[in-house]
Amino acid sequence: MDFENEVILAIKGNKDSFAKVIKNLELSMYRVSKAILKSDNDCADAIQETILKSYKAITTLKHPEFFKTWIIRILINECKKINIQKNKVIPMEDVIIEKSFNNFEENLLIQDTLNLLENDLKDVVLLYYIEDLSVKDISDILNIPKGTVKSRLSRARTKLAIILRKDFKESDVYETEGI
Questions:
Q1: Which CATH number is 94-179 given?
Q2: Residues 18 and 55: beta-carbon distance below 8 Å
Q3: What is the reported pLDDT for 176?
Q4: In whole angstroms, what is the distance from residue 83 CA to residue 129 CA?
Q5: Is the confidence at residue 96, as pLDDT, over 50?
Q6: Model confidence at 173, in pLDDT bands (50, 70, 90)?
């Protein structure tokens, strides 16, 4: 059965379908929470609270096709709440990118590079490139206009290009010095 049909059954009260939908999204939920919260315990708390809240409120979801957007929005709010309770700034550090990249060194390079971006740019890059969400979905999740999402993506791409060019030039210098 496809994801949207499972969501429809979950909305109608089918607990097994709800569990399947959550299981399908658990890696995405972990990546998003880990990008906002540093601690795995905090991530687990945020995800658990998100699951409870979404289970209680699933009957209010009018469009099953937006379930992922809806639950990610709840998760982000829970993560922010945990950060506020702990009096933290929301760092988008230690982004887990294993979905897209298998090489450990590439993961570290990408994490380090993303950490050089401002938080608002990291948010959209993570959601767009790592979670494969659309501009509209990101707009809904972050409560910002679609144009803002597009401009942040553009600014992030520009900054990433500058950072990566600089890194590659520096690595070329080291390689030619050893010759």
A1: 1.10.10.10
A2: yes
A3: 47
A4: 24
A5: no
A6: very low
Give the CATH fold of the 1-91 domain. Rna Polymerase Sigma Factor; Chain: A (1.10.1740)
> What is the pLDDT, as a whole number, of residue 94?
43
Do 123 and 75 touch, CB atoms closer than 8 A? Answer: no
In order of 23, 25, 37, 41, 131, the CA distances from 53 in angstroms are 16, 15, 19, 18, 22
Q: Which residues contact 129 (CB under 8 A, 6 or more apart)?
A: 100
CA 66 to chain centre: 16
Q: Is-contact 117 156, C-beta < 8 A?
A: yes
Residue 89 pLDDT level (bands cut at 50, 70, 90): very low
Length of the chain equals 179
> Which one, of 95, 121, 126, 120, lies nearest residue 108 by Cα?
95
CB-based contact 116:163 (threshold 8 Å):
yes
pTM: 0.62
Average pLDDT over residues 103-117: 68
Residue ranges of domains in the chain: 1-91, 94-179
